[in-house]
Amino acid sequence: MLAAKRGHAGVVRTMLGFPKQAQLLLDMPSGLNPLMSAAYRGHEQVVQTLLQSPFGALLALGRAEDGFNALMYAAQKGQVHVVKALLASPHAALMMQANTEHGVNVLMVAAIHGQIEVVKILLESSYGSKLVQERGIQGTNALMSGVYAGFKEVVQLLINFGFVEQQLAAHTEYGGALDIALANGHQEIAELLRSHGAVSLLSDAGN
User: Fold this and answer.
1) How far is Cα 103 from Cα 126, in angstroms, rounded to an integer?
2) Model confidence at 204: pLDDT above 70
């Protein structure tokens, strides 16, 4: 794990050649495996080495205690090269279709952290439409995540992608995207949303 964390691809490759050492890569506390650790820190060579190993699928399937996988960690930190490497792997579908226990997907992670380049990559992928329309268990979507965090460019990217009506219809007990923008003082984002037809979804709308 330490070798992956520090980006020592050669050491990781050597460990993978010995069954007992390789097993140590999988038996990690809290579910945090070397692929996640390397992805989070942007160690692309280590990520490639692990993905190409016989353990690639198992590592890609791995989840930490927070429900994140390697792709989510890379998205959170804006590790663009690692995100591309993960999406180019045979295990991309395993990671792209994953959600945390709260229904959070990788696009929501990228959006709430303002990782614009990662958002672009995810939207351009074959899973873009699915990720945009997905909602967490409380009703949140990627648009609402970007709005909440105040990232106007992320919000614009999501709106430009399409499915605007569906995105704006998503809501929680706190309302929809426009309500979240207003509650958090994001006036420019609120105006942007209004320009695309957003209205308050709260019961006392207009008051």
Assistant:
1) 20
2) no
Q: Could you give the CA distance from residue 177 to residue 159 in angstroms, rounded to a whole number?
A: 11
Give per-residue pLDDT as tens, 8-39. Answer: 466 666 666 656 665 666 656 667 899 999 99
Amino acid identity for residue 69 in this structure: N
The pair of three-digit structure tokens given for residue 12, joined into one six-digit string? 């990781």
Is the distance from CB of 146 to CB of 116 less than 8 angstroms? no
Name the residue among 44, 127, 131 with its Cα closest to residue 79: 44
Share of the chain above pLDDT 90, in %: 78
Q: Determine the Cα–Cα distance for residues 100 and 145; give it in Å rounded to an integer.
A: 15
Domains recognised in the chain with CATH numbers: 1-98 (1.25.40.20), 103-207 (1.25.40.20)
Give per-residue pLDDT as tens, 52-94: 998 899 999 999 999 999 999 999 999 999 999 999 999 999 9
Exposed (0-12), middle (13-18) or buried (19+): which is 154, by Cβ within 10 Å? buried
Residue 99 neighbours by CB under 8 Å, 6+ apart:
67, 105, 134, 136
